[in-house]
Amino acid sequence: MITLSHISKTFPGTRRRQPVIALDDVSLTVERGQVMGVVGPSGSGKSTLARIVNLLERPTSGTVTVDGVELTALSAGRLNEARRTIGMIFQQFNLLDSRTALANVELPLELAGVGRAERRARATELLERVGLADKLGSHPAQLSGGQRQRVAIARALAPRPSVLLCDEATSALDPASTTSVLALLRELTDELDLTTVLITHEMDVVKRVCDHVTLLEGGRVVDSGALGDVVRRPQSPLATRLLPHPQAPVGEPVVEVTVGGADHDLVLTELIRRFDVRVAVLAGSVETLGDQRFGRLQLRVDGAPETVREALDYLAQATPERELELTRAVA
Ligand SMILES: Nc1ncnc2c1ncn2[C@@H]1O[C@H](COP(=O)(O)OP(=O)(O)OP(=O)(O)O)[C@@H](O)[C@H]1O
């Protein structure tokens, strides 16, 4: 589990350059088993945030706590030890070209003083787990981008970390490799109960593997939460990017509802069961977010005026969130 508390980071200015406030009072918690996507425009502070989690960059103020240990309070020696609990992968893989896949994965264990037989066994097991059992002796130049990232993932996991930081890990990959690497990251997070942070500029990555998302803008957290919650916040800039508002034909009287999660089919079923109304879906957008399906539907509800009013009240009140879901009533 990662807890960032009131983190600010200012890069000092030089004679030619103004100081840069890269992060401004960021507080964030990522629980074990979660995949947190961090999105935001270029320069919003995403990479700085990732580097602050393992203290490659020291915050100007605020605290970083990983699995109950406050990293910002540790001495240099203790910090090096604590960093083993945090694995990191990058867009450019950062593998050593002169080493085989096996030797790359062994490297962090070598540095930690693990004996040869043990580190070889661990590296072999990890490369098998990431689907590269037949590539142990290959050098990075002989591997595809997706395979190199798999080696990098195996290397990051070698010291048995509890946290995995991924900075644009799929940005250099083709669509097929992106799909398989994202699936692997999700599987490993579940299997090893990791706390995973995915820095990305692609919303599609968030939709596919993340269960939580944070939007940074100008170094500040603009929105953060579980995908299913964020998508229901009418004012959230992330909500529309995760699930666009459909466009109903101009002039039609519509209400828009956001349905999703476990009860995604209940709202309409109940509406028709309870009220003597006809319901037409005029437009809709449906997305799979993580492992759940969400939809925004624009509906025309026809019937006797009093019954229609009651039906719309039902839509608004069926659950507390649903009050928010009834975001627009265009008459
Ligand atoms: N070492 C540094 N020295 C000075 N300024 C820096 C340094 N590292 C980052 N910055 C500045 O901090 C701000 C945030 O940078 P950061 O790399 O965290 O953004 P980002 O959201 O990851 O951007 P991108 O998506 O383009 O990678 C930017 O204005 C950047 O220029």
From TrEMBL:
One of its GO terms (cellular component) is plasma membrane. One of its GO terms (biological process) is amino acid transport. The keyword Methyltransferase does not apply. Homodimer. Forms a membrane-associated complex with FtsX. Part of the ABC transporter FtsEX involved in cellular division. Has ATPase activity. PANTHER family: AMINO ACID IMPORT ATP-BINDING PROTEIN, METHIONINE IMPORT ATP-BINDING PROTEIN METN. This is D-methionine transport system ATP-binding protein.
